[in-house]
Amino acid sequence: MQLLTATGPSLDSREILNKFRKDNPATKFLRFQWQDYSGVLRGRVVPMDTVLAQISKGGPLKATGLALCVSLTNNLIPSTPLDGQFWMLPDWSTLHPTATPGSAQVMCALDFTVPATGPVSREVCPRHVLNKVLQQAHEDWGLKFLVGFEVEFVVMKANPSTGKTERCSQGWGLFSIAGLRDPCYQYVEQCVSQLEALGVDIQAIHTEGQRGQYELALGPRPPLEAVDQLVLVHSYLKDTFARHGYVVTMVPKPVASESLANGQHTHLSLQPTRPDLEESFLAGILKRLPSLCSLCLPQDVSYERLLPFVAGGNTACWGTETRFAPIRKIESCRWEIRNIDAMANMYSTLAAIIGAGLCGLAGREPLLWPDLGDPANKDAPRGEPLPKNLEEAIALLDGDAFGLAVVLGRPIIDRYVEMKRFELSKLEVMDPESARELFIELF
């Protein structure tokens, strides 16, 4: 399906919108959405009549010059170009009703021009960069991919007397049916029913490791489609529960004093299965895993989740069906990457992970890390320590000792590094619990 480009609409844009409006006559507003470097979902809401009028005129759709220049603390990075402009390129295959009556949403890529009438650049948009990496994988190696996500979340509620957000779902965890008797759970099934009606592949629901924690397992999709589906699932959960006075959060550590932790385990498989490429692809990821943490674990709170030999571990290692390792091999050419959480921008994160694998293929890198799932390797070293905080991870990404920028492009790495360092400087002066409340609100 063609996209609306920065130079004008595709021929079928108007047809798609008119059909959508006919099928959804109550829809009055359309959210043009993108995910920024901090993983924050941003967008512009435009009345449907205005959208159709703009497309009829043939002009491009403006986002804002600040689309990728704002930290999650709502501050502009110092290098924000005041004469720049981002343009929205909607992918109409992502057009869906939202959980909010009368509203719809569509995910967008972003073109960038400086000045506003200058040449178009796509080098700083996470969605464009992921698409570029996927094209390179297909052209150079004949590879495609499937990606599936595990969505872990907790239901919370604002306490008016304290001004704090507190955990309110208390059902027993670890697959227990007792946990499904919590009053909050009815809204989980409500969300799943609505999402399935939109074509979302939800393979299972269960209570997770701690009281009041739930997980949805999403079926495998091609990478761009998988991330679009993930964004839709997050939005439906948050919007549905919000209408009933609750807050759904995927923050890795929503309550500082509790062991409760949310991850976003990511399943990645090579298509077609290529055992001849498997080891070098995995080696490329493991070699660059410490710097990949800057994208997979994008806030200091993310590192509170990493413990030795628990929930993904804190060293660069892998193992067949080994859950204490950050990479668990499930079967030939299929892995679960466990050191990821929902604060990540998954477009750029998947671009970096797949890009690291392509670096391994290009260099024919050997798999030097032992399979820790093999009993013969029970005493083998657990690998290089992963960063202990975001600054350590950012420094590794910035230094790029192993050539990740060759695949991703230096512009998006430089912009991301600048944003995260600036963001850290703003968060450092915040009260830690106020920062955690902000994370809960956004994620």
Compose a concise summary of this entry.
It comes from Penicillium brasilianum. Belongs to the glutamine synthetase family. Helix content is 34%, strand content 20%.
Structure characterization notes:
By secondary structure, the protein is of the alpha+beta class. The protein folds into two domains: 14-121, Ubiquitin-like (UB roll), CATH 3.10.20.70; 132-442, Creatine Kinase, Chain A, domain 2 (2-Layer Sandwich), CATH 3.30.590.10. Helices cover 34% and strands 20% of the residues. The chain contains twelve helices and 15 strands. The chain has helices spanning 13-23, 48-57, 126-141, 185-197, 223-242, 275-287, 289-296, 346-362, 390-399, 405-408, 410-428, 432-442; strands at 29-35, 41-47, 61-62, 85-90, 96-97, 103-113, 144-159, 164-167, 202-207, 213-218, 247-249, 266-271, 318-320, 327-331, 334-337. The strands form two sheets. Strands 7, 8, 9, 10, 11, 12, 13, 14 and 15 form a nine-stranded mixed sheet that branches. Strands 1, 2, 3, 4, 5 and 6 form a six-stranded mixed sheet that branches. It is globular and about 65 Å long. Residues 1-11 have low confidence and may be disordered. This is Glutamine synthetase. It comes from Penicillium brasilianum. Belongs to the glutamine synthetase family.
